[in-house]
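Review form for a predicted model. The reviewer records the input and the model, then writes brief findings.
Reviewer: anonymous (R2)
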Amino acid sequence: MRILFFAALFLSFIQLQAQERFSYSIPDLQMETTSVWQTIRDIQFFESHGYQVNLPKGKLIQDMIEKSKKGEFGSDDFSSLYQFMEDSVYRKSDYEKGVAKVRSRISFLEELVDEISQINWSWGFKTFETYQIHLTLYGSGGSYNPDNASILLFTNTEGGFKNYADPAYTLIHEIVHLGIEASLIQKYQVPHAMKERVVDTIVFYCFGERLPDYRRQEMGDNRVDTYIQSKEDLVKIDQALAKILAEE
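Model under review:
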């Protein structure tokens, strides 16, 4: 009987783990090196759109940034970057405070995703069974991968985050990015600045009361504002995008 009891308990635990919508993790050395490499690779994009990025300090990094701007940076640079990260930069303990803050906001994020999934989006907002949150000390603040519903979230060694003290603000922003990627962004080939305004607009009107400090970015294309002025207007955001982009 005892064996059966513990077997049932273990099975229940596995099922509970499987049902959790959010997972979060400290990056290993390989993952963090990849994050730095990708940021350097895309440095011109970040600078042209006004993003402030964090990168490790040192001559090697500066040399790689210059190579990237000249179009000479690539996969051949990964091994030397990895060695630099291993020798001089990466420490697992640097992420512990950030992870603790993310962990404390998971139940709140669950509530937000439940709320947005219950809205009758005529154009098809996508929610995922699971979201993976990966922390990083480098990059622009937050990014997303629609192929596996993963989010890369910037933190610092003191558990701080860019733009907001509460990581839930950036995480819900990236969750909305994931939700509209196929049905709006890819379908209408929405350019970057307009995409950011659409995401900010959805978060602002859906969660303004629950995220009272949420701010719409200045970099966003505010032509969307003419058409979307309330939560009720969000159901026709696809029509607004079609009109705006047809005018170009």
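Findings: The chain has one domain: 25-246.
Further findings: The two ends are 72 Å apart (CA to CA).
Recommendation: see findings above.
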